[in-house]
Specification:
The chain is mainly alpha-helical. Among the domains are: 128 residues, no CATH class; 61 residues, 2-Layer Sandwich (Alpha-Beta Plaits), CATH 3.30.70. It is 61% helix and 4% strand. The strands form two sheets. Strands 1-4 form a two-stranded antiparallel ribbon. The protein has a two-stranded antiparallel ribbon with strand order 2-3. A hairpin with a 2-residue loop joins β2 and β3. α3 packs across α4 and α8 runs antiparallel to α9. It is globular and about 60 Å long. The structure holds iron/sulfur cluster (SF4) (3 copies).
């Protein structure tokens, strides 16, 4: 079923068309510009959070409202590989953003999540109630968590019923199932939410499933489709509702545990030389643990695959982004 919403993209055709095609160089250039700016601004060290919000808001405007081009990069490379040798310009159109993202993540880390992804921005903003709840004593925190979870389950289920499709094919509903899985998964996570590192490996299962389904030809939609496409299908809309609702319970829940794109970027970041590191001895005050929106910190220890390079830990303690080679030299000295 299609939800009947008006088309919302401001630009209806390529701004900088390549060879007169639908393939647009504009998203490529803007994407590249924002991620390079993010890298420079993060390391410049002044008003980082202000600049980060500016980049996120710009990206949200450009990629949701302004440009006609869908930003999908999960399935794009599969379309592209199918076209190589037959229609290379179309292959390039599908592949260019994906290659750019992989290259910049390998070079600078997972900046896309912390500085560009609109879903990350909305998840982060919606995480405020969850972050306040995490400050409660354990018993009350848990009760409040389950009450909130019950509330969002009711609302999301009602929404899913309201927009339910006429048919029930597996492939039509898979993104919605992914979103529903997130909410059920949170029920298991809640008792351990402040020490949830063991649950974060699930994002790699998500990557493998997503890629596997795409390779065998299942048309997997995602929460991104609602934002980036110019039409909204039932499954994407329900998964988006579940993802946003999940952030109300545990900060950036989708990004922490299930986002396949985040999982892939988290894995790639392991090969990037730039990492966040604690540069002075830790006094075990615990402030950083709840400051990090991804829960990537545990008393000075950083879970590199969860870090989204947002720089918020810099504000509360001596965390710095360093080049790993430099750190090795310091260690040897
Ligand atoms: S983890 Fe996924 S949804 Fe979250 S910011 Fe990264 S790409 Fe976006
Ligand atoms: S804020 Fe700094 S001192 Fe406190 S737990 Fe985190 S790393 Fe340790
Ligand atoms: S470790 Fe620091 S830079 Fe990384 S996500 Fe957490 S707060 Fe942001």
């Amino acid at each position: 079923m299609r939800i009947d919403v008006p088309l919302f993209k401001i630009t209806k055709q390529a701004l900088l068309p390549i060879q007169g095609f639908w393939i647009d160089a504009a998203p490529f250039v803007i994407f590249f510009g924002i991620l390079i700016a993010a890298h420079v601004l993060l390391h410049r060290g002044k008003h980082v959070q202000l600049w980060r919000r500016a980049c996120q808001i710009t990206a949200a405007f450009v990629f949701i409202l302004f440009l006609h081009r869908c930003l999908c990069m999960l399935r794009g490379w599969i379309f592209a590989l199918n076209k190589v040798g037959r229609n290379d310009i179309v292959a390039f159109g599908h592949l260019c953003m994906f290659v750019l993202l992989v290259s910049l993540t390998l070079a600078f880390g997972r900046l896309f999540c912390g500085w560009l992804c609109p879903l990350g921005l909305f998840s982060e903003l919606l995480s405020i109630p969850a972050r306040l709840r995490q400050r409660l004593p354990k018993g009350r925190r848990l009760i409040a968590g389950y009450l909130m979870l019950a509330g969002v389950l009711v609302v999301v289920t009602w929404f899913a019923w309201l927009v339910r499709p006429g048919t029930q094919f597996f492939s039509e509903n898979i993104a919605a199932m992914w979103g529903a899985s997130l909410l059920l998964f949170l029920a298991a996570v809640l008792p351990f939410e402040l020490h949830d590192r063991r649950f974060k490996g699930v994002k790699y299962v998500s990557v493998v499933l997503w890629l596997g389904l795409s390779v065998i030809g299942v048309f997997v939609t995602s929460p991104w489709c609602t934002f980036f496409g110019d039409e909204i299908d039932y499954s994407s809309a329900v998964s988006l509702a579940a993802v946003l609702a999940g952030a109300l319970i545990v900060p950036m829940a989708w990004c922490r545990y299930l986002c396949p794109m985040g999982g892939a970027l988290g894995w790639l970041t392991k090969f990037s030389p730039i990492r966040v590191r604690k540069t002075t001895p830790c006094t075990n005050c615990g402030t950083c643990d709840t400051t990090c929106p991804m829960g990537a910190l545990d008393r000075g220890e950083v879970d590199g695959s969860s870090c989204i390079y947002c720089g918020q830990c810099n504000r509360v303690c001596d965390y710095r982004f360093v080049r790993e080679e430099r750190k090795s030299e310091e260690d040897e000295a």
